[in-house]
User: Which sequence fits this backbone?
């Protein structure tokens, strides 16, 4: 099975599951606001990548649904807060008005907070053994916290209107973008009972995918279509952010993107060598979805 087939089969069941977990219990608008941003869609690449890792090791993927949902809640919360006037000040997200435009700035902040905190509760509701739950919760806290995503977001803001080196740019996005992708691979490996050598390779793949994902996003901000992307383009330039196309030029940025993807594929092949039953096609085809014509 390739990733496209897996994605088509699993997107809707996972989407339904992740939305149905949020029950109307507060007597306020907060659940509506939480669901609003989740229902805006998006590719769900992080949770589906997590589930694809489990599938590639021929394990039961539904065991991973709660952790995948938690990961998507964290990602969605970060987007809600990213869009706020104090941050990127965006009016559109995934083709819809951003949360603070649809509701209010205060409700958007609380909706993000609610998704963040609920993520950890959801993992404890899973059928995963308690020792693994603790491991997954701790890693998600580190991944999404000041050492990971939040630290990367702060560094990204600090880097506005500054001339960054490629190394500094990579450090920012390894945290801001790459950490949640790394968690997807890490969690998939933990749930699938991978050996330590396989988990190391999974995290190597995640690191390369994370860099590639950001390079691709930077390129699309320059050449992409706002209607297709569901958000405004040219935002990075307006905010004075250093990007891969700005530092390398568009052609070399595309070449660097492909280099990262090719390196990730080599690590996938190494897992296959260690575990012959591993379905390398799933991750190979996922990596191909990030490719662009050079």
Assistant:
């Amino acid at each position: 099975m390739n990733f496209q087939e897996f994605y088509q089969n699993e997107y809707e069941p996972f989407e339904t599951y992740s939305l149905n977990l949020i029950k109307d219990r507060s007597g306020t608008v907060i659940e509506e606001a939480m669901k609003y941003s989740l229902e805006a869609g998006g590719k769900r690449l992080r949770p589906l990548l997590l589930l694809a890792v489990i599938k590639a090791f021929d394990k039961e993927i539904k065991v991973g649904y709660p952790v995948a949902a938690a990961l998507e809640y964290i990602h969605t919360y970060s987007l809600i807060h990213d869009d706020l006037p104090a941050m990127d000040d965006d009016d559109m997200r995934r083709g819809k008005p951003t949360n603070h435009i649809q509701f209010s700035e205060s409700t958007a902040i609380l909706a993000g907070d609610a998704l963040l905190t609920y993520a950890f509760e959801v993992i404890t509701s899973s059928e995963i053994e308690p020792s693994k739950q603790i491991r997954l919760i701790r890693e998600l806290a580190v991944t999404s916290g000041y050492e990971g995503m939040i630290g990367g977001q702060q560094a990204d803001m600090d880097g506005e209107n500054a001339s960054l080196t490629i190394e500094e740019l990579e450090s920012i996005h390894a945290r801001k973008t790459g950490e949640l992708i790394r968690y997807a691979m890490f969690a998939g490996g933990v749930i699938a009972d991978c050996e330590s050598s396989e988990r190391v390779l999974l995290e190597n793949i995640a690191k390369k995918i994370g860099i590639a994902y950001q390079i691709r996003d930077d390129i699309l901000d320059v050449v992409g279509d706002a209607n297709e992307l569901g958000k405004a383009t040219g935002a990075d330039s307006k905010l004075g952010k250093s990007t891969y196309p700005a530092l390398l030029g568009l052609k070399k940025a595309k070449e660097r993107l492909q280099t990262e993807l090719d390196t990730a594929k080599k690590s996938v092949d190494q897992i296959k060598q260690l575990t012959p039953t591993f379905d390398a096609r799933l991750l190979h085809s996922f990596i191909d979805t990030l490719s662009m014509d050079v």
